[in-house]
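Entry:
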Amino acid sequence: MTGEEPGTLERAVEATLFAAETPMSVEALAGHLGGLEHREVREALGLLEARYANRGVHLVERAGRWHFETAPDLAHLLRREKEQVRRLSRAATEVLAIIAYHEPVSRAEIESIRGVQTSAGTLDVLMEAGWVRPAGRREVPGRPVIYATTPEFLDHFGLASRRDLPGIDELRAAGLLDPVDEAMEAAMRFEPDEEPDEGTSADDENLAD
């Protein structure tokens, strides 16, 4: 399609994405449209993204895949009256958060962070939801399965990538998480190789009083 009149490629990409049943990557779009250069497709996507910025639907990228979605300020108009909200148990919420912030992680690593055993059913629920997937095996004795989040997880929570994950305070403020224990909070506040400050604890202050 190189050399055609300006606008033709953008219209082809637009039509392809509207007709696609699932989000498409630049590579998939290039192949579908006859083996175009990836640069051409990216330029067309950039033009379309800008064109739809103030429309009722936006062109967005999630985990390297592109699709159209309702503008955030209009989403409430399209919700069904009897919408069924997927609610996770406290255990599933904690496990999902640990995987998202520390992936890839094994079940044993998840249990180490939570401080309690994790049932296989909890991971099954997250995988059935399409938010978690097996991501291979850890190269250690026993070769345990390790888990990671999926593009569907990013899409559901409106994240372009894991770099956009909010902090735990933001999640609480948005009402997306039930209160979690101190160990879970510490796990999300600090990187795996980072330790909390050895400051004076509240108990120490109380004793000082």
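The chain has a mean pLDDT of 75.
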